């Protein structure tokens, strides 16, 4: 909670600040998802949860253009160990103690290719039916990944499951929402951040 709030207002991650390995928000979001999933799992058996514990092995990834061995090790150190997250639901709350036994950080794109190299052929049934051919993955397979995020759009060239070259464009979905919200508010005494503007679009 403290990582997401400043002066009693939700803090948005600066889409122009490229430091996922050092910012508090990605860590808080990852741990919050673990806590929420655990509460959902146990809530079905006991709706009167107050405090629970869970232990996990965690793997995550940071953009290829931000990745370095030092950055990965820094984030691994911050994720590993014991954390406490409070999950609020309805008019009650549950405290979740999370023990991250081990954390591994790799490059975005690599995890997807590792999955493709290990997954059973049946997973590509719909692909096969649509395109009339199979996906063949080897260590010599080359691919080009485009990852459109909130603050950047990353392009990564892969050889097998190994990223070899990457570039990042300082434009993403977050920039599009910011520009759209400015156009929406033009001529009005109104100011919206990108998340507030998303809520309007979803209503």
Structural notes for this entry:
α5 crosses α6 (about 195-200). This protein starts with a strand and ends with a helix. It is globular. The strands form three sheets. Strands 3-5-4 form a three-stranded mixed beta sheet. The model is unreliable at about 1-5 (pLDDT under 50). The protein is α+β, with helices and mostly antiparallel strands and about 200 residues long. The chain has helices spanning about 25-45, 70-80, 110-120, 125-130, 175-185, 195-200, and strands spanning about 5, 10, 50-60, 80-90, 90-105, 140-150, 155-160, 160-170.
Keywords:
about 200 residues; alpha+beta; 3-stranded mixed beta sheet; 3-stranded antiparallel beta sheet; 8 strands; about 35% helix; globular; disordered N terminus
């Amino acid at each position: 909670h403290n990582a997401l709030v400043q002066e009693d207002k939700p803090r948005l991650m600066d889409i122009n600040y490229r430091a996922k390995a050092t910012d508090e928000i990605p860590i808080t979001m990852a741990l919050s998802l673990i806590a929420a999933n655990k509460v959902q799992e146990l809530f079905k058996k006991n709706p009167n949860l107050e405090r629970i514990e869970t232990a996990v092995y965690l793997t995550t990834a940071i953009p290829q253009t931000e990745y370095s061995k030092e950055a990965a090790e820094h984030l691994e150190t911050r994720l590993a160990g014991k954390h406490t997250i409070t999950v609020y639901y309805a008019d009650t709350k549950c405290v979740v103690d999370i023990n991250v036994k081990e954390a591994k950080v790799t490059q975005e794109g690599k995890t997807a290719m590792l999955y493709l190299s290990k997954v059973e052929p049946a997973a590509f049934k719909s692909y096969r039916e649509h395109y009339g051919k199979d996906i063949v993955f080897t260590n010599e397979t080359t691919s080009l990944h485009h990852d459109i995020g909130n603050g950047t759009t990353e392009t990564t060239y892969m050889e097998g499951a190994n990223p070899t070259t990457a570039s990042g464009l300082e434009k993403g979905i977050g920039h599009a929402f910011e520009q759209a919200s400015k156009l929406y508010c033009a001529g009005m005494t109104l100011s919206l951040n990108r998340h507030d503007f998303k809520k309007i679009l979803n209503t």
